[in-house]
């Protein structure tokens, strides 16, 4: 199963594509879609959509796993990230990619085995599970790979699927 993991953002959207089968992981690609601060917000949204659409077309994932949003600070940032997340979901829906959502707690539990793990622990486990030579940067990329790993460990539960058809 080929899984596209997404860490949603406005300035940085982390993504990672893994293949999971026979209890083994293979890293296909990972990186980040970035937008420039100060650039028109609609141009930034279009870049996110276009780049994610291209990643989906190139990687042809069987599923997209995305982190649910959790904010406790800047309201303006939260709104922009939420709008960007909607655009990311639309890109997947337009390419008929099933979408699955996971909370940060679920991701940590699936990757580290402990729901209160810190960012460093998650990054180290991503590196170890995917047999990478170093922790992927930026952090959003490592987070996206963690989300994909979470889905690989959880994909039997179709109750997490968004109702998009």
Describe the structure.
- The chain has helices spanning 41-59, 75-94, 104-112, 119-129, 139-154; strands at residues 2-7, 12-21, 24-34, 63-67, 99-102.
- The chain has 165 residues and is of the alpha/beta class.
- The longest helix is centred in the middle third of the chain and has 20 residues, at 75-94.
- The chain starts with a strand and ends in an 11-residue tail after the last helix.
Keyword list:
single chain, alpha/beta, globular
Described by strand count, sense and barrel closure, the largest sheet is:
5 strands, mixed
- CA-based shape: globular
Strand line-up across the major sheet = 3-2-1-4-5
Structural class based on helices, strands and sheet pairing = alpha/beta
Order of helices and strands: EEEHEHEHHH
Q: Compute the average pLDDT.
A: 91
What fraction, in percent, of the residue positions are helical? 40-55%
Instruction: Count every beta strand, where a strand is a DSSP E run of 2 or more residues.
Output: 5
Rg calc? 15 Å
């Amino acid at each position: 199963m080929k899984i596209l993991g997404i860490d949603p953002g406005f300035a940085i959207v982390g993504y990672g594509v893994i293949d999971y089968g026979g209890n083994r992981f293979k890293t296909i690609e990972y990186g980040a879609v970035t937008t420039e601060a100060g650039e028109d917000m609609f141009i930034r949204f279009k870049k996110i959509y276009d780049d994610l659409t291209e990643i989906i077309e190139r990687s042809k994932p069987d599923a997209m796993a995305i982190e649910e949003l959790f904010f406790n600070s800047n309201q303006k940032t939260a709104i922009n990230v939420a709008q960007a997340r909607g655009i990311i979901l639309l890109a997947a829906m337009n390419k008929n990619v099933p979408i699955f959502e996971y909370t940060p707690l679920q991701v940590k539990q699936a990757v580290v085995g402990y729901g209160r793990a810190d960012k460093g622990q998650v990054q180290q486990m991503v590196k170890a599970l995917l047999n990478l030579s170093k922790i992927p940067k930026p952090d959003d990329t490592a987070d996206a790979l963690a989300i994909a790993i979470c889905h690989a460990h959880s994909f039997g539960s179709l109750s997490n699927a968004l109702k998009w058809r």
